[in-house]
Amino acid sequence: MNEWRYCDLVADHVRHLAPYQPGKPMAELERELGLTSIIKLASNENPLGPSPHALEVLATLRGELALYPDGNGFELKTALNAHYPLGLDYFILGNGSNDILDLVARTFLGPGTSAVYAQYGFAVYPIATQTMGAQGIEVPALEFGHDLPAMIRAIRPDTRVLFIANPNNPTGTFLPGEDLRAGLRQIPPEVVVVLDEAYTEYLPDDQRYDPVAWLDEFPNLLICRTFSKAYGLAGLRVGFGMGDPQLIALLNRVRQPFNVSVPGLRAASAALGDRRISGTHTDFECAGTPLSGRGLRLLWGILHPLFWQFHYGGGGAGQKNL
């Protein structure tokens, strides 16, 4: 059977789907361009690497790699519950937080439904939506970030999910906690609000807020976080969600068994106990401060010193340093 006939077998929404395009591996670029040293910025990987606690645990796992992981992730959920004392049934684990975003789409979306997300939001939101045959409603950005009032106005009777990345990926913009909570009160309870907080550990103290404390008020809220960024475990693919137990139970119905590996579960549990992670933002702020004197500036509302806007042209500092 040739390629065009295979294409005829799939649903229209799959045929027209544009797949996610990850950045090329550094080794591939080195081969293509003949380079010997590359600094990769495209995927926002943590240059500080994993917690030493995680590395120590990984070195002990040789005898466990022939065994399936704990499908319920009891050890990691227990460690998470020590940080966020909600009860184990408030947690769901994923093969990265992308896995949890996909679980939401598979659980709540389908033909005849819609999901709302922002322009310049995370690329997975439209992919997950369109994969299920649902309609994506992309709301124009406000200064490269979420226009939450406009997103709320875009909700239709067939809307089942609203995606919010806070801080936003890739632009780094940020919605203050009080604005976010006020917006949640205006969203219909039958719309699942996915609060994607992959970069929340990078928030400075004066921007921090506690959405975990809102879960009783908003049973339609699902908070997604990851061990890929601040914890430096992107290669192990571990994420988690927090939400009302009834919501979590529905997501677990479509979750694949053993979706998080033994190394991922063990390393994430160990990394949670490393208090040095809390200094991540301060470390990056110190590293980024010298850039402010070299013709670079932060985008509107951006919290993370690595999200710098480079100005090109006229021999500017940004151009000279690229």
TrEMBL record:
Residues 37-276 form the Aminotransferase class I/classII large domain. Pfam families: Aminotran_1_2 (PF00155). The keyword Transferase applies. Gene3D superfamilies: Type I PLP-dependent aspartate aminotransferase-like (Major domain). Keywords: Aminotransferase, Pyridoxal phosphate, Transferase. One of its GO terms (molecular function) is pyridoxal phosphate binding. Its cofactor is pyridoxal 5'-phosphate. InterPro entries: Aminotrans_II_pyridoxalP_BS (IPR001917), Aminotransferase_I/II_large (IPR004839), HistidinolP_aminotransfase (IPR050106), PyrdxlP-dep_Trfase (IPR015424), PyrdxlP-dep_Trfase_major (IPR015421). The keyword NAD does not apply. PANTHER family: HISTIDINOL-PHOSPHATE AMINOTRANSFERASE, HISTIDINOL-PHOSPHATE AMINOTRANSFERASE 2. This is Histidinol-phosphate aminotransferase. It comes from mine drainage metagenome.
